[in-house]
Design brief:
about 425 residues, alpha/beta, Aspartate Aminotransferase, domain 2, Aspartate Aminotransferase, domain 1, 7-stranded mixed sheet, 5-stranded mixed sheet, 12 strands, binds pyridoxal-5'-phosphate
Amino acid sequence: MMHDETKCLHSGYRPKSGEPSVMPIVQSTTYRFDSTAHVAELFDRPTEYLYSRFANPTVDAVEKKIADLEGGVGAMCTSSGQAAALLSVLNICQAGDSIICSSAVYGGTFNLFAVTLKRFGIECVFIPPDADETEINRAFRQNTRLIFGETLANPALVVCDIEKFARVAHAHNVPFIIDNTFATPILCKPFQFGADIVIHSTSKYMDGHALQVGGVIVDGGNFNWKNGKFPEFTTPDDSYHGLIYTEEFGQLAYIIKARMQLMRDFGVYPAAHSAFLLNLGLETLAIRMPRYAEQGQRIAKYLTESPKVEDVSYPGLSSDKYYPLAKKYLGGKTSGVVTFIIRGGRKNAARFMDNLHLISNEVHVADIRTCVLHPASETHRQLTDEQLLAAGIHPGMIRLSVGLENIDDILTDLEQAFSKVD
Ligand SMILES: Cc1ncc(COP(=O)(O)O)c(C=O)c1O
């Protein structure tokens, strides 16, 4: 078995003698065939590339690399992280179903589940991220089809107790889906703790350079779709010539169904060029993640000592509420994202951010460059104060995404901006 550093470079694409060393960009919408019968066969069982709305060799290589890093059986890239979250749920749910979700998830996911899916007839029951098993059990209904959580929640930095959520989900014969964006498979491999499906916004650390928006769904291949609760996996699919996913594809039933039904119909597949750029980011992921964690730890410690700061959330700090879970699931390394509450609330948050010179104020996170964001007035402004608090967000909270500049330069910029607020 290869190590992560090696997988980052070699998984997904192994050139044969005389082929390009670097994964080529196959910039083609379509593929030429000699025989009609062959094309017909591929419509029944897509084992080769047919059309780039649902499969493309460059994207496929990246999918294989990410599946390998996560330890899954297959993956499907999407054109955004939002699309990955949406399809991961729609592959299991339809109108009349319900899902359970930890309230400490990315604001876009919260809105997708609370508002948009509701309009399509899928209800979401939100539970506190620290809910105990009895509380999670209470959220179950007859029609609950899955539980959803986030390894390291954006921006609250709540660490998900993956084993607990997976255990309760499995006791009810439903899968546990987890968004592993902030941790990446370098810091946490959720399948090892019982998660069934992993999703990512690849726009973050995986891409790493703020080049392109993307997402991915990874199938762990271990969930038993034949437990009687998921007839759409075990009975003929009329839209695919009566094909039965569990019979045809076994362990790959979930991810192939997602591609054959949902990617076919929604068409949210990334372009080959985007996958090529994502691959460049992935090649250095295993090197970058520990460095982000090291830099994040240094900045988090500095913030805890600052008189201008009311509170710091960073699960890598031994004083943090989530430190024990961070040790268990992330080996204590909790990325470069640090959140803190500045003294003086909203007003000082804006003043501090407006006075930063090196560090950028931008709607992004997990980038190679250090950046900041004020969730209450930016990404999470659609949430009510009550929902903000449920997601662990204080009005004075600033999300600082520590990049890979020299640590002293980052500290100098923070120090001078703090000096501008009372
Ligand atoms: C944890 C997490 N999941 C999902 C998303 C959505 O991803 P995208 O912006 O790629 O659609 C984000 C975006 O910030 C995120 O941080």
